[in-house]
Design brief:
CATH superfamily: Transposase IS200-like
CATH class: Alpha Beta
Number of strands: 5
Shape: globular
Number of domains: 1
Strand order of the largest sheet: 2-3-4-1-5
CATH architecture: 2-Layer Sandwich
Helix content: 25-40%
Length: about 200
């Protein structure tokens, strides 16, 4: 991302954030790697005005749905999260060096339909990219802890997994356009190993 000044945030809208890995690193969806990523996200889910509410991991990037009271809280929260992720993954991979390719990309979600679309996108993105997901809900996302499904099992440990949403748009507003259905998540086709 270009190093322009970040726009001011309202603090009343959730955000869709993308963090991309540097080239040549193992997939974030590999079992051991994803376990480390999930633990780090859980540990850094809420601090200093930043809340990580949902996530979805692909091979070379991770999507986050989060809230921040302002742009400073977002920057601090994401910097802390990125440092924790980099340290943990470098330790796992027995390497040193940069883990993330670039600055994060963030977009404020200002309308209920935008929030609903992003939730469906984050939970179904692996399938959209052709990754075969045999489980009902993608295990490399927080979909199992999401309480907005109309046709999925009750959430597992929803209150203790990541941070609890506080903005109207992420708690109530998006529901005006209907609960999410597993049937609306894309059905992908298999890709060659290493392309997830």
């Amino acid at each position: 991302m270009p190093h322009r000044a970040r726009p001011k945030l309202s603090g009343r809208a959730p955000l869709h954030v993308t963090l991309k890995l540097a080239k040549g690193l193992p997939s974030l969806r590999a079992s051991a790697t994803h376990a480390v990523l999930r633990d780090v996200l859980r540990a850094g889910a809420e601090r200093l005005g930043f809340r990580l509410v949902h996530y979805g991991a692909l091979g070379d990037h991770v999507h986050l749905v989060c809230e921040a009271v302002d742009e400073r809280a977002l920057a601090r929260g994401l910097k802390g999260l990125a440092v924790r992720i980099a340290r943990a993954l470098n330790r796992l991979w027995n390497r040193a060096g940069a883990v993330f390719a670039d600055r994060y990309h963030a977009r404020e979600l200002r309308a209920p339909r935008d929030v609903r679309n992003v939730l469906a996108y984050v939970f179904g993105n692996a399938r959209r990219h052709g990754v075969v997901v045999s489980e009902l809900l993608d295990p490399c996302t927080s979909a199992a802890a999401f309480n907005g499904w109309k046709d999925a099992p009750a959430p597992r440990n929803a209150s203790t997994w990541l941070a609890r949403a506080r903005t109207w748009l992420l708690t109530v507003g998006w529901r005006r356009h209907g609960l999410l259905s597993i049937r609306e998540l894309p059905r992908g086709t298999p890709l060659a190993r290493g392309h997830s």
